[in-house]
Design brief:
268 residues, single chain, mainly alpha
């Protein structure tokens, strides 16, 4: 019996980004329901893909303990993850068309749209590094002296409680500022792999379109995120094993939201 072939991406890259539409708040719930529909017919394959991803993460973590090599591996992982997501978008498309999901879909992005997906990952990683440097510089410039005095014990004992309190508040404020800077970046990369792989949109245009789409649909994404937090807590309870299901379902929900917002159809 012949092996099922992968769904191919459009032949050309550089297509204009499709217009995003505003959807109702309840669609944030529907994306999870649609994701479950995409998961159940090929649950075994999804679980196998999740195990392969876990193996990749564990291998990267082991290499991460090696000086210099670890940093390079971490950087490469950040750059290449949109390639894996792009391949899985083709997998979701295959399920939509009544074709089976294959483990090979996980690596389909290394055969199609590779340069564009890598470029999107490089832009994302570059901006993330700049944000991290900016936050690190802020910590050193504004709070460095206070934190250093607490760590070294140089603070007057009578002022130790105040110093610790100030350090904690400083760290929390910087963390919140980091999240504020990170949110637009997440919005820009959320739909980018799907737009590149399924829509043939160039990387920069895909990231712009993704940001605009997320900004226009903040309310359904808040509903989606609230449900996601609950599911994440539940998935983490049995030693994190629930993530073997929740991970694939999240990927499928990304595809469902892409179809709903960019293709004007209910997740298919």
């Amino acid at each position: 019996m012949a092996e099922p072939s992968l769904v191919s991406a459009p032949a050309t890259i550089g297509s204009p980004a499709p217009d995003s539409r505003i959807v109702a708040a309840g669609r944030g719930t529907a994306w999870w329901m649609e994701a479950w529909r995409l998961f159940t017919p090929n649950a075994g394959t999804w679980l196998l893909i999740a195990l392969v991803c876990c193996g990749i993460v564990l291998a990267a973590g082991a290499l991460g303990m090696v000086p210099l090599i670890g940093q390079l591996v971490g950087l490469a992982a950040e750059i290449l993850w949109p390639v894996l997501v792009g391949g899985l978008m083709l997998g979701c498309r295959a399920i939509d068309r009544g074709n089976p999901l294959l483990v090979a879909h996980l690596f389909a992005g290394f055969r199609q749209r590779t340069l564009a997906l890598v470029l999107a990952g490089a832009i994302y990683t570059g901006v993330l590094v700049l944000i991290s440097i900016a936050i690190g510089g802020m910590m050193i410039a504004i709070f460095g002296v206070s934190i250093l005095s607490v760590v070294t014990g140089a603070t007057d004992p009578s002022q130790m409680g105040i110093a610790y309190g100030s350090a904690v508040v400083a760290v929390l404020l910087v963390f919140l500022f980091f999240l504020l800077l990170l949110l637009p970046l997440i919005m820009a990369i959320w739909f980018a792999p799907a737009l590149i792989m399924l829509g043939g949109v160039a990387p920069v245009e895909a990231m712009k379109a993704s940001f605009i789409a997320c900004a226009r649909n903040m309310v359904p994404f808040l509903v989606y995120g609230a449900i996601g937090i609950v599911l994440a807590i539940v998935a983490s309870i049995p030693f994190g094993l629930g993530w073997l299901v929740l991970g694939p379902v999240m990927i499928a929900s990304l595809y469902a939201s892409y179809c709903d917002i960019f293709e004007d159809r209910d997740g298919a």
